[in-house]
Amino acid sequence: MTAGISEEIDLYVWEGASDIAVRAERSLAGYDVNVMRAELGMAPPGGRDPNRPMVAMVSVTVMSDARFGGGEWLAAQGTPVIWVAAEERGRDPRFYPPAYSHTLPLSFTGAELRALLFRLAGAAQQAAHTSAHAPKPLVAVSAPMRELLSEAEMFADCRTSVLIHGETGVGKERIARLLHDRATWSAGPFVAVNCGAVPEGLFEAHFFGHAKGAFTGAVGAHKGYFEQASGGTLFLDEIGDLPLYQQVKLLRVLEQNVITRLGATTEVAVDFRLVAATNRDLRKRVASGDFRADLYYRLAVIELYVPTLEERGPEDKAAIFKALLERELPDVSDLPQWLVERVAATRFAGNVRELSNVVEWVAIVRRQCGNWNRERIERVFERLADCSRILGVPASAAPAPAAAQHPVLSEAEQAERARVMVALEANGWRRQDTAAYLGISRKVLWEKMRKLQIAGGQGESADMLGPGDGGAYS
Ligand SMILES: Nc1ncnc2c1ncn2[C@@H]1O[C@H](COP(=O)(O)OP(=O)(O)OP(=O)(O)O)[C@@H](O)[C@H]1O
Ligand SMILES: [Mg+2]
């Protein structure tokens, strides 16, 4: 990652006995904010990225504590301070907020915190960086991306599981977020979990939560991801990395919709929409015995493939480049054509993520040089070429493959796919009943599902497996 502009904000919380940090964390889940607890009486640790805006959040009890000393060091370096106090404390002259602080009531809502935080972080950063906290654009100009978005919108509001697959950095998480934002439960939680990053042995504690005193250190009860996501969306990223024994546990929760916290005796009902993502070929993992077929079928009720930048073509690369650059720089009206063409002709092995690194680099050059210094901008493309050589990928764009991994469905086919999906849903994914419902034979239904790229359905009963089951996705 190039140094310079970062989209992240550091939020340091100094608190006494309150739970401000926990509530801040909850309100800011899914946003690019690192919430960190700071030691009483100590300045924030050194070694932070100075380009990242920092905001402090201080509870009134700490602010008036001699060990905090009023936090003058924060004011001295121009750090904005959010002062959190119960309303009646705020009226007590001993607890008046210092001149450099902004106030939030102790009963602050997530929306209040976010509004103030992003405003302060923007002010703390150079004016040019302020725009980085604007909503991120989701650019889709090419036909395959537009198809994908319309498909995502179509399936956003149904509770069935979705499996998103695609190469690294293509925007799988953005699609997961879109599915949540367009659903009727969008006001509910969106809990994103990287399955590859769950420490061994802590799967149960993280996913199922624990009761008070369940193990040493479990001082309070804790909700796991399943419960946290209830009423919203659970996004399981890198699902292909889930070890087999964890797959069994996940499958059981999906089947029964109840969980038991570690050390608890009672069951808790959970209700969430599951969206999973992977950059691995899950079908191959099923074939090799590394991924359970029954879980695969349950996850892949709806499958969405996010095309690579190469598959999307030069127009998407140019459009994403411009849109991301506009967020970094106040004015891109004089963006030179050679630069847009250079981007469009480059092959980004790391897809949109790599392209956004190029954007950061270009923005820094533009700001530091005051012009589009070609020599310096070229260096980033040279560096990309070096990386590609190491990774063995050609650096310049290859012609897009004739057909993407999933042929794109026509509008009529998409409408039919939706009709069949609804019928399957209405009949609990039982082929026999669904076929009768649609007035067609089981064989015709099977063929339709295959043509319309509908995965094998939920459950494992023989009725749900079609003829030549293994070849269904080949
Ligand atoms: N269509 C798009 N328009 C603009 N920005 C995008 C688009 N798609 C992805 N991005 C940006 O690219 C970066 C990578 O996206 P995302 O994290 O969703 O990819 P991913 O497929 O989940 O990656 P990984 O496989 O590494 O988990 C993010 O910063 C995201 O905001
Ligand atoms: Mg991801």
Automatic annotation (TrEMBL):
Residues 138-364 form the Sigma-54 factor interaction domain. Gene3D superfamilies: 1.10.8.60, Homeodomain-like (1.10.10.60), P-loop containing nucleotide triphosphate hydrolases (3.40.50.300). GO terms for molecular function: ATP binding; sequence-specific DNA binding. One of its GO terms (biological process) is regulation of DNA-templated transcription. It comes from the Bacteria. Pfam families: HTH_8 (PF02954), Sigma54_activat (PF00158). Keywords: ATP-binding, Nucleotide-binding. InterPro entries: AAA+_ATPase, Homeodomain-like_sf, HTH_Fis, P-loop_NTPase, Sigma_54_int, Sigma_54_int_dom_ATP-bd_1, Sigma_54_int_dom_ATP-bd_2. This is Sigma-54 dependent transcriptional regulator.
